Amino acid sequence: MKHVLLLAGTAEARCLAGRLWDMPGIALTGSLAGTTRDAHPVAVQTRHGGFGGAMGLAAYLRRNRVAALIDATHPFAAQMPWNAAEAAQAAGIPRLRLLRPAWPMRQGWLQVPDLAKAAQAIPAGGRVFLTTGRRFLEPFLARPDLRVVIRSIDPAGPLPPHCHAIQGRPSDSYAAEFAVMCAYGITHLVTKNSGGKPAKLDAAEALSAQVIVLPRPPQPDGPQVANVSEAVDWLHRTVGFGS
Ligand code: NAP
Asked: What is the pTM of this model?
């Protein structure tokens, strides 16, 4: 039996767990950071919380005789992919990065390096749909000349009067994204380039709202695949299935 550790926190990780939970010869453990209060469950035995950096993760891999590591964390998880790469090397095991493709930039979109630059790009009176999560909001909290609708999975915390919180996840439905942006008269959408279903981007374009995109953080070198099927193939080639 080969023990495989899956760094989760994405839809792809959940789907991969769904493909592997009963695979002969594979014992899969999921891992969630434990920072999202209402995280979707992963369909395998799952641990919660950090490992204590790359060396903590390397110690976990050795102690639990992990044969392969699959990093299916979010494209904007800036630290964990580097910890995974360093830990897998230290433990001498193969590692795969499962990373959904980024959205190709479309005509008229604006790419900015961070939220401070995003806020600077929006003129007074703008009605902003901010979908980058509940962290690092300061540049928008400091702009009372804007109306800012902040969508986040966990509550955003206390906000000034010009900001309005919506608790929820992005929707795959164009109609749902169109409805929410329409309801607030959104003129600007600020989003990470997370990839996946482009429902909110299509809705923003239909409303002639300016799309402002944050680029992804860099990734460590090493084997990388774009979808769950390729990850299953990699695992098959790398550790094999069967008892
Ligand atoms: P991060 O900056 O890469 O990670 C910060 C720390 O959280 C890591 O150093 C690690 O702690 C711990 N960690 C992260 N992912 C973990 C996992 N799957 N299992 C165990 N520990 C984990 O990531 P983040 O931006 O804080 O995101 C945290 C989690 O939320 C990630 O798993 C990511 O997939 C998910 N997520 C992130 C975003 C986003 O936009 N950033 C969006 C959706 C989901 P130690 O160093 O102590 O091991």
From this structure: 0.95
